[in-house]
Specification:
By secondary structure, the chain is α+β, with helices and mostly antiparallel strands. The chain has a single domain, classed as Thiol Ester Dehydrase, Chain A (Roll). It is built from two helices and six strands. Strands 1, 2, 3, 4, 5 and 6 form a six-stranded antiparallel sheet that branches. A hairpin with a 3-residue loop joins strand 4 and strand 5. It is elongated and about 45 Å long.
Length: 127
């Protein structure tokens, strides 16, 4: 798992319990998964299709630094599937895990369309 993104938990990220609001964390994960997919297929027209069960393992508080890790699980004709793990940077304590996040490439009409990631990867490896 590659932890490419770090976030500082700030006051505006807190819920009524003064811990990290789950919605803020999911927004960061969705953004990171989108950026990761865009970088793999070299196209900005990528949307979230599916997220499997979200397991909130522990929480974070103001001042904590969290890391978001994503790993590519599979490549479909129009999609890339990742799993996700979020942890505290300093303690390495797990905060959240998601087994499956599916990102889909779309055309101008918003319909799923083929990407070239698998083709480009094979061509690059043969050079």
């Amino acid at each position: 798992m590659k932890y490419a993104t770090r976030k500082l938990v700030k006051p505006e990220d807190l819920n009524a319990n003064n811990t990290l609001f789950g919605g803020a964390l999911l927004r960061w994960i969705d953004e990171e998964a989108g950026i990761y997919a865009m970088s793999k297929i070299v196209d900005q027209r990528v949307v979230t299709k599916f997220m499997s069960e979200i397991d909130f393992i522990s929480t974070a508080k103001q001042g904590d630094i969290i890391e978001i890790g994503l790993a590519l699980k599979s490549i479909g004709h129009t999609s890339l599937t990742f799993n996700c793990h979020v942890r505290n940077l300093l303690t390495k304590e797990s905060i959240l895990s998601i087994d499956k996040i599916v990102m889909v490439r779309v055309n101008d009409e918003g319909k799923s369309t083929a990407h070239n990631y698998g083709i480009a990867s094979v061509e690059h490896q043969s050079n």
